[in-house]
Write a structure and sequence with these properties.
The strands form four sheets. Strands 4, 7, 10, 11 and 12 form a five-stranded mixed beta sheet that branches. The protein has a three-stranded antiparallel beta sheet with strand order 5-9-8, with no helix packed on it. The protein has a two-stranded antiparallel sheet with strand order 1-2. It is of the alpha+beta class. The chain has two domains: 13-62, no CATH class; 66-182, Immunoglobulin-like. The protein has helices at residues 25-30, 40-52, 111-118, 174-179, and strands spanning 13-15, 60-62, 66-67, 75-76, 81-84, 87-88, 95-98, 126-128, 133-136, 141-151, 157-167, 181-182.
Amino acid sequence: MASKGRGAGPMIFSRSANFYTQRTRQQLLAEEPDHSPFTAEQVQYIEKELSRWGGSTLADQPLALSVNDLQLPDAQVGSPYDVALKTSGGYSGVTYKLETHDVNRDDFDNEYAFLVAQRGGLALGLELTALGHIAGVPAVSGAFSFTVIVTDQMGSVGKKQLSLSVKADPSLSQEEQDALTVNTPPAKAAVNTQPLAPPSPKPVVNAPVVEP
């Protein structure tokens, strides 16, 4: 059986002539700690991965971790939904989560819109699992935008913004559909702060003069 060539893995590592080219483990660990991007434990793991594909030094580096591009299929209120996200690059042990931010309830006119923003932008009833599945039964309709954060066991991080459209349940009345629709981003009614113009004076009509 022919031996595997150096760096012959299935797109796990990419060659980089200008990044630790031909550096050995001893050279890497001999660097000052503040200038070395890897700990001794990380170097050990990298070399283990490299050896699986015939590599021998850190001249072969993994591709940057990222979430694959994906056009999410539409969901519908009340119907089960399950779509798996995929990543490229990085190392194994990838976990997924939603990016969240602090939000203020007073900035939202709709309770549903506030709850959606509070949990990262994904429709109520749906969850992003740690293994990368967007799954559940959506409870509200609308257009939703959210950012997925992925982290591998070496600490590499990738982000991807995704969009999902959730359709209303056609079996509901229009009033019920409207009540379960989330308009994102929520918009408050604009308040006119400009001073009102003074009313135009009414024209004066001269009464006819009556001769005695």
